[in-house]
Amino acid sequence: MGRRIAGVIYILITFALVNEMSINVYARDNNKRRTKEKSGGFQKNICDITDRDSKVHCYCENTREPRNATKAECWVFNGGIPRDDLIWQSFASQPILQTLSFNVRVDGALGYIPTKALLYLQRLRSINIKYGNIVDVTPYSFANLTNLKEASLSQNQIENLQQYAFAHLPNITTLNLEENMIIDIDTEAFYDLPKLQKLVFTKNNISTIRNGTFQHTFNLLELDLNKNNIYHLNRRTFDGLANLRKLDLRKNRIQNLTEFTFAELWNLQELLLGKNDLRYISERAFDGLSQLRKLSLDDNKLASLPSGLFEGVRGLSSVDLRSNELHALTFDNIKPILDNLKPQNSNLLLEENNFVCDCRLKWMHSLRNETKSQNTKESLDSVTCKMDPPIVSSAYNKMPDAMDDKLDYNQDILHAGLTIETLNDKMNVTEKKTLPGDLSKDDANEISKKGVKRTVLKIPAETLPCPREAIKTTEIPPYIVDPVIPIQNEMKTFRFHDTNSAYMKLRPSFGSVVLWSISFRFFFT
Ligand SMILES: *[C@@H]1O[C@H](CO)[C@@H](O)[C@H](O)[C@H]1NC(C)=O
Ligand SMILES: *[C@@H]1O[C@H](CO)[C@@H](O)[C@H](O)[C@H]1NC(C)=O
Ligand SMILES: *[C@@H]1O[C@H](CO)[C@@H](O)[C@H](O)[C@H]1NC(C)=O
Ligand SMILES: *[C@@H]1O[C@H](CO)[C@@H](O)[C@H](O)[C@H]1NC(C)=O
Ligand SMILES: *[C@@H]1O[C@H](CO)[C@@H](O)[C@H](O)[C@H]1NC(C)=O
Ligand SMILES: *[C@@H]1O[C@H](CO)[C@@H](O)[C@H](O)[C@H]1NC(C)=O
Ligand SMILES: *[C@@H]1O[C@H](CO)[C@@H](O)[C@H](O)[C@H]1NC(C)=O
Ligand SMILES: *[C@@H]1O[C@H](CO)[C@@H](O)[C@H](O)[C@H]1NC(C)=O
Predict the structure, then answer these.
(1) 297 CB under 6 A from ligand 2?
(2) How confident is the model at residue 463 (pLDDT cuts 50, 70, 90)?
(3) What residues does ligand 7 touch, defined as CB less than 6 Å away?
(4) For residue 412, with 0-12 CB atoms within 10 Å meaning exposed, 13-18 middle and 19 or more buried, which class applies?
(5) Quick check: 515 pLDDT over 60?
(6) Which terminus of the chain has a lower count of CB atoms within 10 Å, N or C?
(7) Which of 121, 171, 197 most suits a substitution to test ligand 3, by most atoms within 8 Å of the C-beta?
(8) With contact defined as beta carbons under 8 Å apart, do 448 and 418 qualify?
């Protein structure tokens, strides 16, 4: 309180003095602008505006003296300020300002970047405009300022970045355009920005990026396009970004990644594609990314990966594939980067997929064993797969009853019976018989519909069934499944014989299968 009163007194005391100084400033700059300002160009000290009706008020750190402030925070209270209003010229009163911010306090009060003010601030290093309603960033908005290092225009309702919107700013390193509504970026919007390192477009409305948009930002290290509406990328989208280290494309609507999309980005280390709509990735989509260390593809709709996908990104040591629809991830997929996944700081995250329990997941056992990464271990420990009975029985040829070491003897047989039943459905065998045990038919149907979910690493690697190579899903599976492992055959024999009697009276061949499965269980527990 006391300070505030003192401040008011100070203002009153210095009012006359300031007026005098302002007149001096005006006099000094008069020659330059005589032709422009014909009428009443009384120039205020922007740091000491006492007029209550002023549309702009600034608080300057340390000083209210003219020509002495280095930092100013300005509030814009009233709308309708013309672009060439005298208030902007008043910034000439503080030509050594290095840091300037505008906080727009009234909706719609500032619809443009006040270039007319920036013109006088040749030492400016940082500008921040917030909560304005700037729709277009027009050519040379930042007045070719040679010392400007950072510009932030977050939350301003910007829709268009016009040609040369950001141009001739030889020292600019960071440009933040977060939370606007950018739809369109001219291909020459970024021009002659040789030191630009970081460009942020988080939370905008970008749906397409024109070819060559980034062709002039060749020193960019980080490009953030998180939370936009991008649905299409091609091999020209990222032209010019040869030095980029990090590209964030999370939360967009990308469905397809075509070949060589990132081919220009040969220094990229981190590529984030989580939370898109990815369904299809070309085998050569990541070609050229020889420096890539981290790739996130989580929360997409990938059902499989082309087998050579990681051939072109052999440096990869952190891969996030959680929450996709992967039914398999093969050793071929993972082989090019397998050794990178063993050190402590590596990551392979695979939870929440639709893996089918089969031998293509075998490598998970050995990686679990060999990796030093706690994250990878934990992730592998909780990866689940589905024992989809119809697929397993027709296209996979290993013992279905050796899968779960928690099943008891009775359930082993039941499970086998279940498999036979669904196999018969597939083969259009209509004959049905009651199987031994107490699992009701409804339960059985329920299990066969959903498939049984299991933890991959709890299934002994040796017992993961292998898919048969040449079977096409449209073909009816052969009646005799596989002569090498005669289980289905034997089950079938069992199936077609009278089973009113309990399993104790089974034919010797089936009994031996059951015994085999029991010994299996003992062996692995
Ligand atoms: C200008 O500011 C400097 C410190 O930034 C201060 O030492 C100096 O006294 C100020 N000059 C005037 C005229 O206020
Ligand atoms: C910035 O430079 C361009 C190109 O040299 C020029 O056309 C433009 O008038 C300059 N703008 C300012 C505000 O100096
Ligand atoms: C960039 O800024 C530094 C000081 O921050 C200055 O010395 C240099 O001249 C500026 N570069 C250009 C091209 O103006
Ligand atoms: C985003 O852009 C589309 C046109 O590309 C437009 O229809 C939509 O209204 C925009 N959304 C917002 C929030 O501005
Ligand atoms: C952008 O580049 C892609 C890939 O070369 C090309 O197919 C497409 O036609 C180009 N788009 C335009 C508008 O030039
Ligand atoms: C993605 O590819 C599929 C088939 O290859 C095509 O039908 C679809 O339209 C593509 N989506 C986009 C957004 O290009
Ligand atoms: C796990 O590692 C041990 C030695 O550390 C080895 O004996 C064992 O065979 C490995 N198991 C698998 C499944 O690779
Ligand atoms: C099963 O066989 C019957 C008669 O043989 C036939 O009408 C039916 O379409 C077949 N169903 C399937 C799924 O093949």
Answers:
(1) no
(2) confident
(3) 365-366, 369, 461
(4) buried
(5) no
(6) N
(7) 171
(8) yes
The mean pLDDT value for 380-395 works out to 69
Distance (Å, whole) CA 221 – CA 55: 39
Is ligand 1 within 6 A of the CB of residue 63?
A: yes
Say if ligand 4 is within 6 A of residue 181 CB: yes
- Smallest-distance ligand from the CA of 157: 4
Distance (Å, whole) CA 342 – CA 358: 23
Question: Exposed, middle or buried by CB within 10 Å (0-12, 13-18, 19+), for 257?
Answer: buried
Give residues with Cβ within 8 angstroms of 360, minimum separation 6: 328, 329, 330, 331, 464, 466, 467
Whose CA is closest to 304, among 338, 337, 279?
279
Q: Does the predicted TM-score (pTM) go above 0.70?
A: yes
CA 493-496-499 angle, 5° bins: 100
Per-residue pLDDT at 108 exceeds 90: no
pLDDT at residue 77, rounded to an integer: 85
With bands split at pLDDT 50, 70 and 90, how would you rate the model's confidence at 340?
A: very high
Average pLDDT over the chain reads 77
For residue 284, the 8-state DSSP code is T
The amino acid at residue 194 is P
The answer for residues whose C-beta is within 8 angstroms of residue 100's C-beta and 6 or more apart is: 71, 72, 74, 121, 124, 126, 127, 128
CB 219 within 8 A of CB 194: yes
| CA-closest residue to ligand 2 atom 11 | 143
Half-sphere exposure of 30 (CA within 13 A, CB side): 12
Asked whether 256 lines ligand 6 (CB < 6 A), one says yes
- Would you say 365 and 331 are in contact if contact means Cβ atoms under 8 Å apart? no
DSSP labels, 72-138: EEEEE--S---TT-HHHHGGGG-TT--EEEEEE-STTS--S--HHHHTT-TT--EEEEES----EE-
Q: 224-258: per-residue pLDDT in tens? A: 999 999 999 999 999 999 999 999 999 999 999 99
**What pLDDT is attached to residue 3?**
58
The number of CA neighbours under 13 Å toward the Cβ of 72 is: 35
Tokens of 219: 């020193």
What backbone torsions phi and psi does residue 368 show, to the nearest 5 degrees? -55, -40
Measured distance CA(320)–CA(350) in Å, rounded: 7
β pairing state of 71-76 and 56-60: antiparallel
| Helix (H), strand (E) at residue 3 | helix 2-33
- pLDDT band at residue 206 using 50, 70 and 90 as cut-offs: very high
Closest CA to 514 of 394, 396, 401: 401
Mutate which of 369, 370, 457 for ligand 7? The one with the most ligand atoms within 8 Å of its CB, which is 369
Q: What is the mean pLDDT of residues 188-209?
A: 97
**Residues 266 and 243: beta-carbon distance below 8 Å:** no
